[in-house]
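The records we work with from here on pair a chain with its fold. Each token is a code from a learned vocabulary of local backbone shapes. A record is reproduced here so that you can trace the correspondence yourselves:

_____
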Amino acid sequence: MNIKLINPSSHQPLCISENGLTEAGNLSFPFVNGAYRIVSDNNYTENFGFQWNLFDKTQVDKSTDLNFSRQRFFAETGWDKEDLSGKNILEVGSGAGRFTQIILDHTKGNLYSVDYSNAVEANFKNNGPHERLHLFQASIYELPFEKEQFDKVICLGVLQHTPDVELSVKKLIEMVKPGGEVVVDFYPVNGWWTKIHAKYLFRGYTRKLNHQQLYSLIDRNADRLIKWYRFFSKAGVGKLVNRFLPVCDIDGTLPLGLSDQRLREMVVLDTFDMFSPQYDQPQRISTVVGWFNKYGMTEVWGGNIPYDKFKAAVVKGIKK
């Protein structure tokens, strides 16, 4: 590794040993199943560990016949894969490694990938071992790296699920070196109607369920919910009615041309992803742009970026 590691609690240097990361010769953080474990599994992202170890292949391009993750990654970042050669990239919130795979297979960048949950195990199964991949189970608020070391920092599909979104943005910006770039996406606030949705109406109950209970509930009802969604869409009232169905937005979030089996798998995954997180905090693009400016970024851009039939709320900028 050419990135300096630190204990996020003591801020003292960490060294790599056969069994993990050591501080002053003592083992501080073990290396388990492909990842350095800075934190335990018992935290607010347990649902994501359950989710991504269960659906470890579903969104990973090389495990499917899709290129959905590759399209999204390059559309949102706008990066040229050749320009990433030899660069140090920090990925925060990697889940099962859908974008980890894109970086490793389509660029020659050095990737430091972090997730707060034990989804790091699914990521390692999908992408490791790899000489350019370094996996860490750590919090976005206590990252095990010295500040201002990375050429690129990405955080995709994560910010809205953190307890303090502004602080999350600040911590990401701290990691990038002057002249380096940060790219984030997030659930956007589109208007007053954003939270008038089944997700926010039912989450007070569903996020308290045992993960297996919630998964089983969704899986048992998935076929029925898909039929209802399709019925209302064909009747021409889908945009009004389907937002109140306890199922993901099939037409608005899933790729076209899926087999019935693949569609069902993605519906169960995305519906679980709707109802299980402890935090779900959509943001206005202008608010996130303001935070980028506040914490030392320049050339800040925020807006909706299209890819395939979709669009993503993205903010990006360069460190002063």
User: Anything to note?
Assistant: The two ends are 25 Å apart (CA to CA).
